[in-house]
């Protein structure tokens, strides 16, 4: 890396965390200062900041161990990796049972970010590749994750002065009021539908994936062309909800 882009304070914090992780509950400020050759004044500031962030915790003997926030972040990273792996395992079975493709996505602000996909052998290939983004309000995946937010959160995310929202098809919602009404229904039924709101000729069902605290962390969906949707709609909804349940903590 070009030295001009380096941030020395972050590098020192990394060294501190690494040292504490190797000797949990055994090192004091003076020990870390000597081992890492960082003067006591700088070490004090670094440790105080790390402690305030919850990255380290000071024990009664003035020694340090890694904090709960690092544990939470590590769990989230592991869960993301593990979620992808579990999705491919379980969705491959859902794909065989229904004969349709399944997607995994997360909410990123006002957009849906597609993470993974299990694609069935169908005449028309879905364009929802991992890394692709679409407006959340116009997709079943997005709506089912937005439904976990409060109305105040929705107002903050979708200011009324930014109406109408971008629409992907003539069926896409374009107002906060329409979105809120849709989210109320989704909260009651536990899943979301996209009836040609993202792509003309395709409909979709999505269900939320929840962590151990009940918070929505991602969602899964199944999309298909209208002729197949008319035949498989109920089976699609049931399979998507079953898959989401299997992927939830």
Automatic annotation (TrEMBL):
IclR-ED domain residues: 69-249
HTH iclR-type domain mapped to chain residues: 7-68
Entry-linked SUPFAM superfamilies: GAF domain-like, Winged helix' DNA-binding domain
DNA-binding keyword on record: yes
InterPro entries: GAF-like_dom_sf, HTH_MetabolicPath_Reg, Tscrpt_reg_IclR_C, Tscrpt_reg_IclR_N, WH-like_DNA-bd_sf, WH_DNA-bd_sf
Signal peptide range: none
Keywords annotated in UniProt: DNA-binding, Transcription, Transcription regulation
Entry keyword annotation includes Transcription regulation: yes
UniProt-recorded name of the protein: IclR family transcriptional regulator
């Amino acid at each position: 890396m070009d030295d001009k882009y380096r941030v020395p304070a972050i590098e020192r914090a990394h060294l501190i965390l690494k040292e504490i992780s190797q000797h949990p509950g055994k090192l004091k400020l003076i020990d870390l200062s000597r081992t890492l050759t960082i003067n006591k004044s700088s070490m004090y500031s670094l440790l105080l900041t790390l402690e305030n962030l919850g990255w380290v915790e000071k024990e009664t003997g003035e020694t340090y161990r890694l904090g709960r926030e690092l544990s939470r972040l590590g769990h989230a990273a592991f869960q993301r990796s593990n979620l992808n792996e579990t999705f491919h395992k379980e969705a491959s079975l859902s794909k065989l049972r229904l004969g349709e493709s399944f997607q995994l996505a997360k909410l990123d602000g006002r957009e849906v970010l597609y993470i993974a996909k299990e694609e069935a052998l169908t005449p028309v290939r879905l364009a929802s590749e991992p890394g692709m983004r679409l407006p959340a309000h116009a997709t079943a995946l997005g709506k089912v994750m937005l439904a976990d937010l409060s109305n105040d959160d929705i107002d903050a995310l979708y200011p009324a002065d930014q109406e109408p929202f971008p629409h992907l098809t003539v069926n896409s919602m374009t107002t906060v009021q329409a979105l809120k009404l849709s989210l109320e229904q989704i909260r009651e039924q536990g899943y979301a539908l996209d009836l040609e709101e993202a792509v003309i000729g395709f409909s979709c069902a999505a269900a939320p994936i929840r962590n151990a605290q009940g918070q929505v962390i991602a969602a899964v969906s199944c999309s298909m062309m209208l002729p197949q949707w008319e035949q498989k709609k109920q089976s699609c909804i049931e399979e998507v909800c079953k898959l989401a349940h299997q992927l939830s903590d």
